[in-house]
Amino acid sequence: MAGRKNKNYRQLVSDTGKIAEYLFFPHWFWATLIIIVSSLIFWVSLNIAYGSND
Question: Who contacts 26 (Cβ-Cβ below 8 Å, separation ≥6)?
């Protein structure tokens, strides 16, 4: 079994654009949105943990 090639290897790692066809917005939009949301959550959690002097 060792050294045996997986027949579906190329099928598993290959993106033929099918995923991108179903996205409502382009991938960079979703990546940016995730970064912004996670940054806001991180910032809020720091304010909860350490408090703000505002």
Answer: 20
